[in-house]
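Try this one yourself first.
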């Protein structure tokens, strides 16, 4: 049940992105659901390989290159899913940061119960 809730929260975060970054476009809620699944799969399969391959560059940039990798993952998802448009690498980088922040905030608000 929690996996389904996180999937819906990520789709809602994707739907909020065009309001913050006009260079990103999500066609519909169904597109956002598909992009959330594809981003999850990309982050589970492709991202670890890229992190390992780019480890020297990541160390030289003190970890800042991970933002570029995240932006590239966003661009890959846009390339794979019709109806999800990312304007370029900078839009992908900023979009991945904003997407992460919105998704984190919604998850904290909706899924974490207050501790007593």
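Now uncover the answer:
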């Amino acid at each position: 049940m929690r996996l389904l809730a996180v999937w819906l929260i990520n789709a809602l975060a994707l739907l909020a992105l065009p309001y913050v970054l006009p260079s990103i476009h999500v066609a519909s809620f169904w597109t956002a659901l598909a992009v959330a699944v594809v981003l999850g799969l990309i982050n589970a399969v492709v991202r670890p390989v890229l992190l390992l391959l780019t480890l020297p560059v990541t160390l030289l940039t003190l970890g800042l290159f991970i933002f570029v990798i995240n932006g590239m993952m966003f661009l890959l998802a846009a390339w794979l899913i019709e109806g999800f448009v990312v304007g370029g690498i900078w839009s992908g980088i900023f979009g991945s940061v904003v997407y992460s922040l919105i998704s984190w905030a919604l998850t904290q608000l909706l899924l974490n119960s207050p501790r007593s």
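Discussion: The first helix runs from residue 2 to 20. DSSP finds five helices and two strands in the chain.
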